[in-house]
């Protein structure tokens, strides 16, 4: 699986958009970009995933660059409950996910 | 979405003993995985639990230490054998229903070894 690089930590003011970047320059053509988050003491929660096109669901938007070497997860209106560790993972579908260190997002009042 | 029930949610065990963790899913799933999360760390894949055959272990994990069963498409167990304090971690069960489907995670088992 391709490796990912994420900032260690980020802050975001409540109500503002949180933009979490991820670099995956060695991604292969059939690997997806997955985003999960883990709130303290809970199992990881799926957020969104995509292959080439930008994706949006009720939780977030995923913007993937045309060369697929990086992506950005956007939480449009961050709330205090969005404080968590966010993991960007690239993997083939049908395989286990290998988690990196992720980005610790702190949403402040 | 799959609902995963993991038991026990937490346990405190003595050194040298073994603990079996159960993972029950509310629907049949093709892929089941076991992860470990050591204190302050990210998740590490232990093994893939294969239905009807032996589990596939990742580098650094062996069957004698972490035996896994997968008797059917909705259930799996992970045993942590001959425990030491270094085994104190959260152990998580994860499932994937079909190819290209997202992974669902259980709430984990918080294990403390004294």
The sequence of SSEs of chain B as H and E is EEEEEEEEEEE
User: Which structural class do you get from the secondary structure elements of chain A?
Assistant: mainly beta
Distance between the termini of chain B: 37 Å
Mean pLDDT of chain B: 93
Proportion of residues in β-strands of chain A: over 45%
Helix content of chain A: under 10%
Q: What structural category arises from helix and sheet content of chain B?
A: mainly beta
Task: Please state roughly what percent of the residues of chain B sit in beta strands, choosing from under 5%, 5-15%, 15-25%, 25-35%, 35-45% or over 45%.
Answer: over 45%
Low-confidence stretches of chain A: none
Which two protein chains have the largest interface (Cβ within 8 Å of the partner's Cβ), and how many residues from each?
A-B, 19 and 22 residues
Radius of gyration of chain A: 13 Å
Largest sheet of chain B: 7 strands, mixed
Helix content of chain B: under 10%
Quick check: average pLDDT of chain A?
Answer: 93
Structure summary, number of beta strands of chain B: 11
Q: How do the helices and strands follow one another from N- to C-terminus of chain A?
A: EEEEEEEEE
How many strands, what sense, and barrel or not for the largest sheet of chain A?
5 strands, mixed
Output the radius of gyration of chain B.
13 Å
């Amino acid at each position: 699986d391709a490796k990912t690089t994420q900032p260690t930590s980020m802050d975001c003011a409540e109500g503002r958009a949180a933009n979490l970047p991820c670099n995956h320059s060695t991604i292969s053509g059939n690997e997806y970009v997955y985003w999960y988050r883990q709130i303290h003491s809970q199992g990881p929660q799926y957020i969104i995933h995509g292959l080439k096109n930008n994706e949006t669901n009720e939780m977030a938007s995923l913007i993937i660059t045309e060369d697929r070497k990086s992506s950005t997860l956007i939480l449009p209106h961050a709330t205090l409950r969005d404080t968590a560790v966010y993991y960007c993972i690239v993997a083939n579908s049908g395989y286990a996910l290998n988690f990196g260190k992720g980005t610790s997002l702190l949403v402040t009042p | 979405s799959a609902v995963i029930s993991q038991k026990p949610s937490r346990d405190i065990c003595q050194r040298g003993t073994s603990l079996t963790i159960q993972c029950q899913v509310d629907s049949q799933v093709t892929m089941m995985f076991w992860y470990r999360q050591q204190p302050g760390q990210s998740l590490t894949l232990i093994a893939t639990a294969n239905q009807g055959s032996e589990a596939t272990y990742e580098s650094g994990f062996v069957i004698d230490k972490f035996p896994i069963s997968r008797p059917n498409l909705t259930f799996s167990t992970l045993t942590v054998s001959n425990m030491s304090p270094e085994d104190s971690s959260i152990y998580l069960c994860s499932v994937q229903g079909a190819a290209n489907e997202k992974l669902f995670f259980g709430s984990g088992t918080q294990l403390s070894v004294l």
